[in-house]
């Protein structure tokens, strides 16, 4: 069971996200309905660690084995999406892919179908795309990770 609940027009979501950098490029994804990009990952399940969740999500979404290299930060995020006010707590991890993947700046789909679009983007090009959380752009550039709060 995902750690996620809704009350009227508000939703709480507990998420694990993967910072995957290969050849100077960051793996990002977006829903086909959205015009913004985010990190790959997904909801943490009840009684599941964030590390286990992020590895599971990479396997489910991309069919790839992965391992967590290190914990990076906690992100408390407050945003509105499709007329629902979200309160999201995200655990962000540096993740290494154990399987080979072609690093391409072209869009590609994962193994779950055509709902999510993936792409590797050169880190120095992140400022040119709509990517959330915004603070992550700076942290990736500087290598300095901190507790994120966005209200």
TrEMBL record:
Its cofactor is Mg(2+). It comes from the Bacteria. PROSITE patterns: NUDIX, NUDIX_BOX. Residues 10-151 form the Nudix hydrolase domain. InterPro entries: NUDIX_hydrolase-like_dom_sf, NUDIX_hydrolase_CS, NUDIX_hydrolase_dom. The keyword Hydrolase applies. Keywords: Hydrolase. GO terms for molecular function: hydrolase activity. It holds the Pfam family NUDIX. This is NUDIX hydrolase. It comes from Exiguobacterium oxidotolerans.
């Amino acid at each position: 069971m995902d750690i996620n609940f809704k009350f009227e027009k508000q939703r709480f979501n507990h998420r694990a996200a993967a910072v995957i950098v290969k050849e100077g490029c960051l793996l990002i994804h977006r829903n086909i309905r959205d015009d913004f990009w985010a990190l790959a990952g997904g909801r943490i399940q009840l009684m599941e660690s964030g590390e286990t969740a992020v590895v599971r999500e990479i396997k489910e979404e991309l069919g790839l084995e992965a391992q967590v290299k290190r914990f990076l930060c906690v992100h408390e995020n407050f945003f509105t999406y499709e007329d629902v006010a979200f309160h999201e707590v995200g655990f962000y991890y540096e993740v290494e892919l154990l399987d080979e993947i072609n690093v391409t700046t072209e869009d590609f789909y994962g193994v779950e179908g055509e709902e999510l679009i993936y792409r590797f983007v050169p880190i120095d090009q992140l400022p040119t795309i709509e990517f959330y959380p915004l603070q992550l752009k700076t942290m990736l550039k500087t290598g300095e990770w901190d507790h994120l709060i966005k209200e």
